[in-house]
Amino acid sequence: MNRRRFIGLGMFATMAPTLARWAQATPAATQGRTGGDVDLANLEEATIAELQAAMEEGGFTAVELVNAYLERIAAIDQDGPRLNSILEINPDALDIAQALDEERRTSGARGPLHGIPILLKDNIDTADRMHTTAGSLALMNSTPTRDAFIVQRLRDAGAVILGKTNMSEWANFRSTRSSSGWSGRGGQCKNPYILDRNPCGSSSGSGAATAANLAAGSIGTETDGSIVCPANANGVVGIKPTVGLLSRSGIIPISHNQDTAGPHGRVVADAAAILGAMVGVDPDDPATAPSAGRAYTDYTQFLDPNGLRGARIGVARQGVTGYSEETDRLFEQAIQAMRDAGAIIIDPADIPTISEIKNGPTELTVLLYDFKHDLNAYLAARNDPDVRTLADVIAFNEANADQELRWFGQELFLMAQEKGELTDPEYIEALETNHRLGRTEGIDAVLQAHQLDAIVAPTGSPAWPTDLVNGDHFLGASSSPAAIAGYPLISVPMGFAFGLPVGITFMGTAWSEPTLIRLAYAFEQATKVRRPPRFLPTLAE
């Protein structure tokens, strides 16, 4: 195979401190800390606001901060527990940080992300010396010609793009029995809490790296569950915004109807800060046009510790509980915590279409049509001399089956390749059904019937043991109604089941991010259950 071979982060091995320095560090309390309380020796759990304050106060520079994260990556991701969450380091990261330090000295910081290191999922284009491959070996011979729209927005905000994260190859849309977090390019990503447990996906590396404090935050993407499921499994906050709040131009697609990027952060405030930096109407993505007047460049303004007081919260149970006794127990505790914080709880407030959504064929039908159409358009614009169509990707995988098809196949690719045009009646009917089930008869119906601010549900169950032979062992999730509707979700840690983090999801109607952030933040402040991972080798340890 005449392909450029990815070289890992061995170049940073000499920079690595002992693992004990990081894994055994006492997590610093974040409430009420100032920038002066944060230094490079206690980065663990430091928030973006704290890092920014410390740089403003002269505690350290962006260059020093980047170097500290590189040391941590070398110690934890490439050595020690070997999370395998990061595919590639930006070779220009230190130069970018140096330029931002000089800018801070001469003209001040651009905003809250100035000099802050951020990781990107490997399906988000960067016009630099890094690759963008969706975890696939098929795309290793080409690089994008320009940044994705959201990447340019992050750069404009002063963020340092630190590297690319591992992911479920092709965003988990290749096989029906894949292992989340596995890619042909990067191998299997691990869960930082229990290393032989799965990090979920498809934004596996984004969730795992954020949990392990390998950057200040990260960007994932979601079609159905790919931001919130890794948030659930890795004990971090994940925001899946309304489809159209963030541009998808320059992101390797599955479906223009359901795809969106979104942030992972260790706390709601971090995720909110990153989200605001990425918004904007993009002429290359018509779905962003309705965001005009509905998007905010600063979502941290909605962080209200009393935000649950008087809020009407509906509890979804049908189809999303009953999969895990421990998860259900934590969910009951979370409901009580919201009640204690002043929320008005309507229980149950089930989504009436949930069974039809989960068991019906229409979501997959739409995704198969969209994937063929959208991927072909993306590859044609990327102008890869070898891979220009879905058919080319299929052929590449077959020719390199020993590397790409060793553990599972590409049956979803084959199914998509057989689909016709987006004018086919089958596609139009399926899309109309999805919108009806997710929107008017689904989430919107429940919100209106009970006059709710949001619906809550368990994000998912505790992480399962990684199984490359048999694939994933999902026990239930709550993302699909919002996925087919194109509506927002926020997953926040709600506790631990047998040492594994579990999250709660806040969902609402289109453009309700301010409300969901307010509620999620208030819940986080009322419960404060997040704790950093210990990198245990197995559950029995």
Task: Give your account of this protein's structure.
Helix content is 35%, strand content 12%. By secondary structure, it is of the alpha/beta class. The strands form two sheets. An eleven-stranded mixed beta sheet has the order 1-3-2-6-8-7-12-13-11-9-10, with helices on both faces.
Brief descriptors of the model:
about 550 residues; alpha/beta; Amidase signature (AS) enzymes; two-stranded antiparallel sheet; 17 helices; 13 strands; about 10% strand; disordered N terminus
What percentage of amino acids are in beta strands?
Answer: 5-15%
Helical segment count: 17
The CATH homologous superfamily is called Amidase signature (AS) domain
In the CATH scheme, the class would be Alpha Beta
Question: What is the terminal-to-terminal distance?
Answer: 41 Å
Cα Rg: 21 Å
Q: How confident is the prediction overall: mean pLDDT?
A: 93
Number of strands: 13
CATH architecture: Alpha-Beta Complex
Low-pLDDT runs: 1-32
Shape descriptor: globular
Specify the structural class: alpha/beta
> What share of the residues lie within helices?
25-40%
CATH fold group: Amidase signature (AS) enzymes
